[in-house]
Design brief:
This protein is of the alpha+beta class. It has a single domain, classed as Gcn5-related N-acetyltransferase (GNAT) (Aminopeptidase), CATH 3.40.630.30. The chain has 4 helices and 5 strands. A hairpin with a 2-residue loop joins strand 2 and strand 3. Helix 1 packs across helix 2. The chain is globular, with a radius of gyration of 17 Å.
């Protein structure tokens, strides 16, 4: 059984060898949560080889505009955030969406092992990603989350101060 969590035990670092199991646990916890919300939209990831695949991907993330933040407690990875800085597109002056002409931070993924939810781990990851984005010239942050989530929607809106900006529609054809 896991010892009680103390936020002072939390550090944020870059990925390293051996993190795959922690990444996979966070990913599978997220999968379980989202499948429970909407099994038509979400599926459980295949766990076979998942830790190795995720660790390999994290260790290869090597671009000045991509950053992999690892949440660590007592030497173990308990979650991660992947941030990507997008530069203005070449024809931005011809677009009506203003942000394509700006540097922006995209949060591709944020997952934390369920046992550590609502303990400030996601908040720390987001604050550090935002700081990194600002240092790289980002004027805004964009991310997606599932509108039906009673965990992520309040986290982003109430805790992190994000506002809804778009709707994504879906219609089944089969």
């Amino acid at each position: 059984m896991r010892k009680p969590f103390d936020v002072n035990d939390l550090s944020i670092r870059s990925p390293r060898a051996g993190d795959g199991e922690g990444f996979a646990r966070a990913w599978l916890d997220a999968g379980d949560y989202y499948v429970g919300l909407d099994s038509d939209a979400f599926q459980m990831p295949n766990a076979v080889g998942l830790a190795e695949w995720m660790e390999e991907g994290a260790l290869k993330a090597g671009s000045p505009d991509v950053r992999f933040f690892v949440a660590d407690v007592s030497g173990a990875a308990i979650g991660f955030l992947v941030g990507v800085v997008q530069r203005p597109i070449p024809n931005a002056e011809r677009q009506f969406v203003r942000e394509v002409g700006q540097v922006r931070l995209i949060v591709d993924v944020l997952v934390v092992q369920r046992a550590y939810w609502r303990h400030g781990v996601g908040t720390r990851l987001m604050h550090l990603a935002e700081e990194w984005g600002r240092e790289r010239g980002a004027e805004s942050v964009l991310l997606d989350t599932y509108v039906g989530s009673d965990v992520s929607v309040p986290f982003y809106e109430q805790r992190m101060g994000y506002g809804r900006r778009a709707l994504r529609f879906k219609k089944r054809l089969v």
